[in-house]
């Protein structure tokens, strides 16, 4: 499962694939192209074609066997592409990692952070972060969830999965927001200097769409957990990416 070393699903997958080809001493790094817009979260990888175009199909099939079938659904497409989708239990574990709030612990724009240029943050971005926090506090008052220090949501883990092991979703807007959160985390992990403001604008827009289609009165612990994940990503982009205080109330 995920560890603190992998803040994104794509980074975890890339690390596993690079481990699988380490014995080849290849100069090529594994790159992934993510699918966008909904679930299941998926990636396409063309590393087999870079390693050996003539043997790409066989190499891709070997790589497919290196990935845990309980975490990934893998198919090999000629001439040697790996199409990989994330299974719900692994996605739920990733969501829980962000919902645990550990990204907020020990993180401050005043503690060991490098100086950032002044950035004028649009109102909608700070509103999205503050709204996530206020909805979590509402959920605590209503008894749907508990909140511990550093924004940790309880129960832990949240009931992301049904008894059959599928994500507990009831609206397409939930799936779209989850997929967007995955994309943002991948951008943070894959890009040395991610465009934090652009990512913030996209994520705040995805939050607004979710909030419009999934009103507070219908918030379940899972939906509130998703708000915690969204808020944690907004927090990271504001505080760590831009060095700007993430407002909890407006």
From TrEMBL:
This is DALR anticodon-binding domain-containing protein. Pfam families: DALR_1. The keyword ATP-binding applies. Residues 125-250 form the DALR anticodon binding domain. The lineage of its organism: Bacteria, Bacillati, Cyanobacteriota, Cyanophyceae, Oscillatoriophycideae. It comes from Phormidium yuhuli AB48. SUPFAM superfamilies: Anticodon-binding domain of a subclass of class I aminoacyl-tRNA synthetases (SSF47323). Keywords: ATP-binding, Ligase, Nucleotide-binding. SMART domains: DALR_1.
